[in-house]
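Thread: "does anyone have the structure for this chain?"

Original post by V.I.:
We have the sequence but no experimental structure in hand. Need at least a predicted one for the grant figures.
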Amino acid sequence: MEQGGGSMGTRLEARLIEATGEAPSPRSFHRSVLVDELFVVWGGNNNDTSVYTLNISTCHWTKFDIQPAPNPRDTYAACLCGNKFIVFGGINSNRVLDDLWSLDLSELQSNPKWEQIEFSRDSPTPSGRFGHQIVGFENRLYLFGGAQNNNLCNNAWCFGMATRTWTELARSGDVPAPRVDFAATVVRDAVYVSGGLGADHNALGDSWRFQIHEQKWYRIPDLDCQPSVRLGHVAATVEGRMFLLGGVGQRPISTMHCLDTDSKPTPVLPPAYIAPWSIHALEVATPKDKYLDNQPNSTTSVKGVGPPLPRFSHSSTISSSLGEIYIFGGIVDGKPTNSTWTVRISQALDLSPEQGGNTVGVKMTAGLVETTGDAPSPRGLHQGVLNGYQLVVWGGIPSHNRSSGLAQDNSVYVLNTSSNKWSKRDIRPAPTARFWHAACLCGDKLMVFGGAESYDQVLNDLWSLDLTKLDQHNFTWERVEVANGSPTPAKRGGHAMVTYQDKLYVFGGFTGKGSLNDMWCFDLTTRVWTELKSSGDIPTPRAFFASTLVDDVIYVSGGVGKGAKELGDIYSFKLNEQIWYKFPDLELQPSAMWGHSLVAHEGRVFSIGGTRNHKEPNDMVDIHCLNTDLIEYPKGGGDVIIKRPKSMK
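Reply from O.Q.:
Generated one for you, tokens below.
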């Protein structure tokens, strides 16, 4: 595969099996298993109780009418346990079932017989359910999830085939939320669960592992290339890998994902020339002893440095002329850093299958900037901008702990990117020290709006600093006064601000009590604030998200929403039309996160860093890239249109 920065890809080929014999009628919500060379299909939404087998060597279907048989059903659970096809629960004519059946597939040609398994007298019994999953392991069945009428389950049960006894397993570890219509499979001694439909009727994109011998749940962290939210998909195991196929999110899903349970997920990626999103691993040019300690196989950071990724609450800004992203500060390995890295963007080989198209790949190479001078202290939640050869950093705090959440540094720090030397400018008067603020360049001026002096004190003041005068003695901050009669946005932090045609646009943020989804425009000529009456698919309230501007479109990614829930959705706002658009869930888009950054370069948006939970290990080491040339916005609103390059039409 061309994307992934050196990771080994998996090539899959699909072919239509032209079979003979008596095939099953068209159906859905059925189940199937594969034993040796027999592919076995039973049930579904057509009241058919016959068993169908496809010999994968001869490509011939055979129908078996075995009576008595289980009642017809759909959305039931099935698995293999040895050579036995196991069926539990499901729905029959709106009746939820709780029966357990077994069919010995080794006797199909001689004496096929369904057996309804009777439970031991003193055994507890799981309630009837549908949309659940069951797997077989060492002559035991493991049942999870599903729905009991209107109630969703997240309990797990074990059934001993020898003792014929059910046991409800203790809820140990990080137990998944209740769900139906998810995928599950067993890999070695673990049950893997992915996606489904949650209690709030929203599709899920999380993945979990139940370690059978420990009887303990573990959440699989959000990783690059993981599947998007979906339900109704299936899972299969091949040589230690879990494959996910199909399902539906906001639309039917046509790609396959592969989780290598021995290492990191190994994706089967759609080609870059089809997918708007692509994923790129960083190639780090700097020797490891510059940023990691000298122990063998260590991932521990050298104090104050650390790798370029993962990190969060950093700043990223780009030099369009050089195609270099400057990353400064943030939280690495749970601690603030003041390291500076550059990420060089270069074009790779043509990715079109004909080798003659006009689509190129992206290569990203990171290098540590070894600086001198009076550098900023380690920090996060600051802002940085790049103006010519000057990287300007302002604000931030040294920790995410509430006990130390008081901003103290309001000096301006400037890195000369030609000499790699930092200088500190103490400019008075100055804005109060703060974090969670928004900043952008408007011409040669650094604009700062809002932010927080502490976790309990947010702001709504606007300041300007002329960066062309930084080398002079008369440079000053200017408090931008608002015209008389002008409304003013609410105080906030964790918001975003961009500049477009001599106007500032501010979106979202956190007031100290809740999140916002309002959009404001400040006219730098008239000095009047206007709250925009936006239309379209307006984002839910959020803070601590990432945003950037491409042409007249603001892109908004992720953040933290109501109930401190991490968000993974993508929105865009057309400034000239004042219309919001929500992106459909697309393959390879970033997972739910906050504390990341977006930068734009030549029509591409790069998502860098971030975290889902800053108290847990951070695995977000790759960079996601959105090719905005493949996005079209219908006039007047509606769903965004995903285009294909002309060479692929």
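V.I.: this helps a lot. Residues 1-8, 264-273, 348-360 have pLDDT under 50 and may be disordered.
O.Q.: and The two ends are 22 Å apart (CA to CA).
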